[in-house]
Amino acid sequence: MLAASSVLLAACMHVSAPVTPPSSPPPTPVVASANSVAAEPVTIPTPTPMPNAISFEAWLAEFRTEALAAGIRAATLNAAFDGLKPIPRVLELDRQQPESVLSFEDYLARVVPERRITMGREKLAQHRALLEKVSAQYNVPARFIVALWGIETDYGRLGGNFSVIAALATLAYEGRRATLFRTQLLEALRILDSGDVAPNDLRGSWAGAMGQTQFMPSTFRNYAVDFNGDGKRDPWNQPADVFASAANYLSKIGWVKGETWGREVRVPDNFERQWIGLDQRKTLAEWQALGVRRKDGADLAAFEMSASLVQPSGPGGRAFLVYDNFRVLMEWNRSTYFGVAVGQLADALADGEN
C-alpha cells in the first residue's frame, strides 16, 4: 500500500515537491487530495496502461458479485451502480505528469500564502470551543488540525466534486493499479452500506479522496469520527467530524502529546552533509555540539529529545530540526515540503494568538 499511495500522491496535483520517505509507513495513507501540492513522481514510474479485455458493464457485473460475497447489501449496490459509467476525465488526470517541480520557496509561497494564514486564524477563532474539545480528547493541538485542513482543502473550499464510486470504478476497471482501486472501491461501498452518506453525496477528488480531510475510503473507515453524535461520520459537511477525524488519524499513527513539529535553525557553512536527513537522529545537545543554532543564533533548547535535520532546498538552503511529530505529518503526505509547510502554517496560526 505504501508504494501505491506514493503513486496516488504523485498523480493527484498540478505541481510537485520532492518526496522523502517517512521512518515507517502509515497504516492507511491519506492520499490524492483535491487541493494540496504533493509528492514528486520522478522516482515512481508510471505503469503502462493495460487495455481491459472485457467491457465496463461486464467488469462491473463481476465486481458486483465480488462485493455481494464481501457482504455488501444488494440495495447498496443497486443505488451505487445505477447508471454508472467510466469517467474519461479521471483517466486523463491519472495519466498527466506534472509540468514542473516547484522550488521549496515557491512551494511555501503557494501553499502557505498570507491569505491562508489570515483565514486560518479566522477559522481557529470561529471554531475555538469545538477545536479545544477535539484537541483535549485526541491530544493534538488545534493549530495543527486547522493547518492540515487549510492545506488539504483550503478550509473545506476545495474538496473535489467527482463521484467517488464512479472515479474508483473507472480506475479499477482501467487496470494499471487494479488491486489498489478495487480495494478502495469496496471500502467506499462499505461506507455507503453503513449509512454514513448517500451515493450522490459521496464525492471527492478524481482518485477517490473524500471530504474536507481528503481521506481515501480505507482511511475513512478506520479513522473517521462521528464527533457531533448525529449517527453519521460526515467530514464533508460537519466541522466537528472534520476536526475529530483529522485529530484521530494523527493520534492513532503516533502524534506525541506536548511536542511540536520542529523549528528552523542555522547550520555552519562547513556543515557535513552526512548529518542531514531523516535517517540521522541526534539529541539537541549533540546538534548543539555540531554547531547548529536557532534561527536567531541562540543556543538550542536544553530538552532531552532527539531530532533530525532536513534541508528541503538542498545544501545551502534553509535548515530545520524536526521531531517525531514531523514524521507523523509525513505519514499524512510523504513530502518534506508538505511537512514543513504544515509546521510553518501551524506556527503562524499560533503567532496570531499572541
Quick recap of the structure?
The chain is of the alpha+beta class. The protein is 46% helix and 9% strand.
Feature tags:
single chain; 354 residues; alpha+beta; five-stranded antiparallel sheet; two-stranded parallel ribbon; 9 strands; 46% helix; elongated
Helicity, as a percent range: 40-55%
Uncertain segments are: 1-31, 38-50
Largest sheet report: 5 strands, antiparallel
Q: Order of strands across the biggest sheet?
A: 6-8-9-5-7
Q: Taking Cα atoms only, what radius of gyration do you get, to the nearest Å?
A: 21 Å
Number of separate helices? 15
Structural class determined from secondary elements? alpha+beta
Strand content of the residues, in percent?
Answer: 5-15%
Order of helices and strands: HEEHHHHHHHEHHEHHEEHEEEHH
Number of DSSP-assigned strands: 9
How does the overall form come out from the CA principal axes? elongated
- Give the end-to-end Cα distance, rounded to a whole number of Å: 42 Å
Mean pLDDT: 87
Describe this structure in words.
The chain has 354 residues and is α+β, with helices and mostly antiparallel strands. It has a domain at 262-322. The chain is built from 15 helices and 9 strands. It has helices at 2-11, 56-69, 74-81, 88-95, 104-111, 114-126, 128-138, 142-153, 164-174, 178-194, 217-223, 239-252, 284-289, 324-332, 336-351; strands spanning 16-17, 38-39, 162-163, 203-204, 262-266, 277-283, 293-294, 306-310, 319-322. Helix 6 (114-126) crosses helix 15 and helix 10 (178-194) packs across helix 11. It is elongated.
